[in-house]
Amino acid sequence: MTRIALIAVVVAAALLLPSTLPLLASPAVPPQQPIFKAESNLVVLHVSVRDRGGRYITGLTRDAFTVIDDGKPQTLEMFSGDEVPASVGFLIDNSNSMRANREKVIAAAVEFVGHSHPKDQIFVLTFNEEVRRAFGPVTVADMNSADFGAAMSRSIFARGMTAIYDGILDGLKRVNDGVHTRQVLVVVSDGDDNASRATLEQVITQVHESDAVIYTVALTDPLTRDGNPRLMRRLARASGGESYHPGRVEEIGDAFERIATDIRSGYTLAYVPTPSAQRGDDGNAARRRTVRVYVRSEDGRPLRVRTRDGYFEKLRGDMQ
Q: pTM for this one?
């Protein structure tokens, strides 16, 4: 595991202060905002809950959630239904295949910032044959939308080949180094790869090991049917995110707005998993643990729950 391992929760100071100490100074962070400290194994899940109509369900309590890890129910060490800031990375295809969508993607990214949490940290990477930093990281409250749009226009020129695998690995590394526990990578591409040094197997392994939630916007040509939307769906599903496939260029902005809403509408759960009795063939191999989250509504309505379906656990003989 990457940041799934070696994390211990410290609930916001306001929740821990006893009521008999009213004169102590205010905590450095807002009440209810989870803080994490590296000390013990903690699995962090970001969970989206909707009804059958697609409406987000807010106001649920800790007791409404049941987490099953490797077939065993887990005790939640931390629960938050409050909106918390995220480290958000955009990974935007800058190859020749994106030329027709260039202007709309730039406009949609600028609009996305307007729907974001003021404390979100935003950065942008572009990729064709090479991966390049186009913007940030910058906190939303400190961003100027005109400057952001100008930086995007200078950086997105839509030419060359496509190294999406290299881009995803770079994007995950950078978002995992973000300042916030909640990590998001938004991938905008047709999904094809013809220039990467990395392999698809390396990408999928890293997606499983990362805490980041991946949202994908698949921009494929409806006439030529070029692209790989199946890869885009696979990336999103493996990380607990969602994939969008706009049929027309005018729908790109709607996809970006829905992603921004989803990021701000989830729950954050954390637990210390029950130790595994299994070992890899050599006693040190990574083993994937499956995770299921169930939510019970007060009125009995069926709810749709989305989160990552598992994670890799490092099993070493010297870990107790």
A: 0.83
- CB atoms inside a 10 Å sphere around CB 146: 9
* Paired tokens of 120: 């979100």
Look at residue 219 in the predicted model and tell me its pLDDT. 94
Per-residue pLDDT, 221: 77
Confidence at residue 59, expressed as pLDDT on a 0 to 100 scale: 92
- Per-residue CA distances from 20 to 16, 17, 23, 33 (Å): 11, 8, 9, 22
Q: In the numeric block, which tokens belong to residue 308? A: 């990552």
DSSP codes, 24-92: SPPPSS-TT--EEESSS--EEEEEEEEETTSPBP----GGGEEEEETTEE--EEEEE-S---EEEEEEE
Q: So what's the pLDDT on residue 311? A: 87
Domains and their CATH numbers in the chain: 8-82+266-314 (no CATH), 86-263 (3.40.50.410)
CA distance 35 to 22: 22
Q: Amino acid identity, residue 166? A: D
Please give the DSSP secondary-structure letter assigned to residue 180: S
Q: At 155, is the secondary structure helix, strand, or coil?
A: helix
pLDDT value of residue 237: 95
Predicted local distance difference test score (pLDDT) of residue 3: 45
Distinct helix (H) and strand (E) counts, the chain: 7, 16
Contact 67, 76 (CB under 8 A): yes
Flag residues of the chain having pLDDT under 50: 1-39, 281, 317-320
3-class DSSP assignment, residue 291: strand
- Cα(271)–Cα(75) distance, rounded to whole angstroms? 6
**According to the model, what pLDDT value does residue 226 have?**
80
DSSP-derived 3-state class of residue 138: strand
